[in-house]
Amino acid sequence: MIFQQYFEPVTCSFSYLIARRRGGEALLVDPLRDQMDLYLDRLARLDLRLVKAVDTHLHADHVTALGGLRRRTGCTTMMGAPTRCELVDLRLQDEEVIDVDGLKLRALHTPGHTADSFCFVAADFVLTGDTLLIHGTGRTDFEDGDAGAQYDSLHGKLLHLPEETLVYPGHDYKGRKISSIAEERALNPRLNVGSREAYIELMAGLDLPPPRQMAVAVPANLMLGLPARRRGAVGGAGRARA
Q1: Is residue 237 predicted with pLDDT exceeding 50?
Q2: pTM surpassing 0.85?
């Protein structure tokens, strides 16, 4: 299997290229518009055909590459069913399976950071977006965030995965790249607060500044990250399932 993790240092964001084999079909998860050339280069070097690209949620800290990748490669763009982005091709349902060349990832609806937050579970790893970070969790204090819903997503879904499951997050701010469910159970202070009410209180007290790119990123991501001059030609909205 091909699994490549890319890091963008300005927003400390991760994106992921996944494929079963060289010369086959590929999936990109949480691609950034600023790294479009990198993705296209890697796809060409590995002789991969990008067939699907998905965002774990509507990002507020960077601009997505979904629209640009669709324009350049013809890939199908996907987000969770509750997304406010009307231009995405497919809206994923909870427990729906993404199949790329026989490589399967299970879509898991994990609201809390946003209402449309999803994680993607493979046989031995999970891509957690901004729901579960390494020794932390995604903030819940803007847009449609909900700390209680996030607690339920963490304790009702993600922490039920096998302890050996590797955790690949959407961000890390301390140079870390990978964790596991076992490590997060043991070392993540936000997973050991004792109760749902205590978690809500903890998250309400973080007092974090707004994401620096929020005013730009959210409107852009509602348009799949395409420049304003191309918005009338985005196309693809409501495309039938492949």
Answers
A1: no
A2: yes
Q: Tell me the domain boundaries of the chain.
A: 2-230
Q: Encode pLDDT of 2-30 as tens digits.
A: 999 999 999 999 999 999 999 999 999 99
CATH of domain 2-230: 3.60.15.10
Radius of gyration in angstroms for the set of CA atoms belonging to the chain, rounded to a whole number: 17
| Residues near 217 by beta carbon (within 8 Å), at least 6 away in sequence | 59, 60, 61, 62, 63, 211
- pLDDT grade for 240, boundaries at 50, 70 and 90: very low
154 DSSP assignment: H
Q: Which residue blocks in 9-140 are alpha helix, DSSP H?
A: 36-45, 66-73
Separation of alpha carbons 50 and 44, rounded Å:
10
What's the distance, CA 53 to chain centroid? Answer: 10
The interaxial angle of helices 66-73 and 36-45, nearest 10 deg, is 40
What span, in angstroms and rounded, lies between the C-alpha atoms of 115 and 235?
A: 25
Q: In this structure, which amino acid lies at residue 191?
A: L
Tokens of 182: 């076992």
Give the DSSP H/E element, type plus range, for residue 148: helix 147-156
